[in-house]
Amino acid sequence: MEFLSRKSIHTNLDLFRIFFIVSLCLHWGSTTQKRRRTNFPEETPEGDNMADYDSYQKAGAVPLFLPSPTNITVHEGELAVLKCRIQNIGPKTVVWRKADDEFPLTIGKEVFAPEEGMQVDYKMISFTESQWDLQIKNVKQRHEGTYECQISAREIYTQYVYLVVLEPRVYEQGLEINGTFIVDKYKMIHLICNATGAVKAPEDVDWFHQGNRIHTSNPKWSGRTHILKHIPIPGRSYISDLIIERSTMADSGDYICRSSDLTVKSVTVHILDSNKPDPPKRGTKPEITPEMNNLVSAAVQVECSKPSLILVLILLSMWR
């Protein structure tokens, strides 16, 4: 009887161990599934960030739209960015749609728009905040209207963003010259012809001096003249630099920048010969330098130290 009771005790202990192990495995599996279903950051935070991480994991947190612009105005052809920042989104899905359109433009990060140029700019700002901006490249007039940033859950949360598309920007066509207009002799002349801002930038720019085109191979300019070209924005911008080293007095005069579409702009460059002394003005006495004073004093002392021959002869003639 004692043997049977001991055997039953061992059996009960074995059953208890098995039950405990099975319960532990089930609990671990359910916890892992929850973590997989939750949109957590890849790395687990440490230290002070644990509080934010714990609050992010709280079930039932209500999504909240954070303040962002709800009226966007752009010109046709530009990039339109419709902002949508959300707090406590958790595993919920963000959907962008146009208010008068039945079908969504985006669901999460996936784009379902019938045209190219739309995308979602997604960023995880913190453990509780995320960014779901809708970007429309090369925006057109047809894109104007009201857009909805929606959070799909048991209740649908919506933020409205209104997009206004204006006519394309109009750029005034013309040239502008900047640089050094007054320089000292032998110094560098640097002129900049800027065609940025034109509706269509010129294909090329030529430089002229006193009506003659500047060729860097010309003996007058060779070895000291450089013409540089920059195209910061293809089709919209063109910049040409004229650099003349070791300037001479002959380099003064009118310089013209002429574009390939025959638009011209001119400036006048003055060369100063600062090493040449200024001529004396009329009606002014010449300046007496200390060296000249010393020379005159020495001459007077020499003349007064010996008798004047003329004065002696005159006195002798009168005495007689």
From TrEMBL:
InterPro entries: Ig-like_dom, Ig-like_dom_sf, Ig-like_fold, Ig_sub, Ig_sub2, Immunoglobulin_dom, Zig-8. GO terms for cellular component: neuron projection membrane. GO terms for biological process: synapse organization. Pfam families: ig, Ig_3. Residues 63-152, 168-268 form the Ig-like domain. This is Ig-like domain-containing protein. It comes from Potamilus streckersoni.
